[in-house]
Write a structure and sequence with these properties.
The chain contains 9 helices and no strands. By secondary structure, it is an all-alpha fold.
């Protein structure tokens, strides 16, 4: 059972305002994406050995924008519904969910720097497994507070399951070492990643 921990939970004003609740995860996710340099992230993604059913790089941006928006909407629905309840148990579940939500958002934002920035697939795998489990529990908690809030997290849960498969698959196929895909860039080359040019031609 997770407790409500105000010191590590986003301010209630974020959850109570629909624009803030929806736009905050979108803005943070976009900021992390740009901080890890989208071109380098794409090139790394194309250079790695991938499991079946990997999506093309251009899918991730729109998909995450929608998922972050749904995540924020779920937070707004759960908070405004739960905190308006006269049932103390519902109010407590709402606040516990707010702490879980904040933790899962932090884990979410950590994944890309771990995987693409630091090239640490083992740590990224641990992160996304923890993230998926925590989000599943959050979906259960907020689903008790508001049915719509729970269902709004279902697409996110589905995507996290798929992302976990991709993370583990990439780690396994690349011997859990992404750094050795890099090499010195020859003067005539447009990439510093092994096999990237052949990967691009195959797409």
């Amino acid at each position: 059972m997770t407790s409500y921990i105000p010191s590590i939970t986003l301010p209630s004003q974020v959850f109570a305002q629909p624009a803030a609740s929806i736009l905050l995860p979108i803005a943070l996710g976009t900021g992390v994406g740009y901080a890890t340099r989208p071109v380098d992230t794409r090139d790394t993604y194309l250079a790695l050995k991938q499991p079946p059913y990997r999506p093309p790089p251009y899918v991730f941006g729109p998909a995450w924008t929608v998922l972050y928006g749904l995540m924020g909407y779920s937070a707004y629905r759960a908070w405004t519904t739960g905190m308006a309840s006269f049932n103390p148990e519902t109010r407590e579940l709402t606040k516990q969910g707010a702490t879980l939500y904040t933790i899962q958002l932090a884990l979410n934002l950590m994944w890309m720097p771990l995987f693409f920035g630091l090239k640490r697939p083992i740590e990224a795998t641990v992160d996304i497994i923890a993230l998926t489990g925590l989000t599943g529990y959050l979906t259960y908690i907020w689903g008790q507070v508001d049915v719509v809030a729970g269902w709004a997290l279902v697409p996110y849960m589905g995507w996290l399951g798929f992302a976990t498969y991709l993370t583990i698959g990439v780690g396994y196929l690349n011997d859990w070492n992404l750094a050795d895909k890099e090499r010195e860039r020859p003067p005539t080359s447009t990439t510093k990643y092994i096999d990237e040019e052949s990967e691009k031609k195959a797409l």
